[in-house]
Amino acid sequence: MSGVRMYKVPNRIARLALGNGGVTVRQAVQQANAALDELRPPCLEIIDEVMAEIERRFGAGAAGRKAEPLGDLYALGLKIIEVAIGLPNSGIDEGARALCDMVDRSLAKDVVAWEAIDVHLQTLMLLRARGQAFTPEQRNAVLIGLKKVTTKKVGAADEPEAT
Fold this sequence. Notes:
Blueprint: H1 12-18, H2 25-58, H3 70-83, H4 92-109, H5 114-130, H6 136-153
C-alpha cells in the first residue's frame, strides 16, 4: 500500500473572487461603504422631510392634530424606518419602531395618548440630532424609556382591551 496522497480540489468561489472581475472581502466592504456614503444624503433629506411633516401634522403645536388619522402617523414612522440607513447607530430606526408600536397599540385599544405621542416625537428629534453621539447604553436607555411611556399611557402589548 502506498502513502497518503493529497489532492488540491479547485475552489470555484475562490477562483471567481480572485480571478477576473472578482473582489476580495476588503474590496467588497469598501465598495459597500462607498455606496452607503452615496445613499446617506438623500436618506437624511427624506428623514428630515418626514419629521417635518410629522411635526406639522402631529406635533404639540399642530392645530387640528386631533383630527389627523393616527394611521398616517404610523405610515410616516415606517418611512423613517425605511431610510434609517442614512443615520447608522443613531437609534432613529428603533425610535420610529417604538412610535409605530405605540400607534399600533393605540389603534387596537382605541386610545390616543397625546402626551405619549409628544414624547415619542421629541425623542425622534433628539435621535436625529444627537443619536449618533450617544453610547449604545445611552441609546438603549432612551428606547427603554419610550417603551415605558407607551406601556404607561397606552397599555401593554398583551393587555386585553378595557370593556
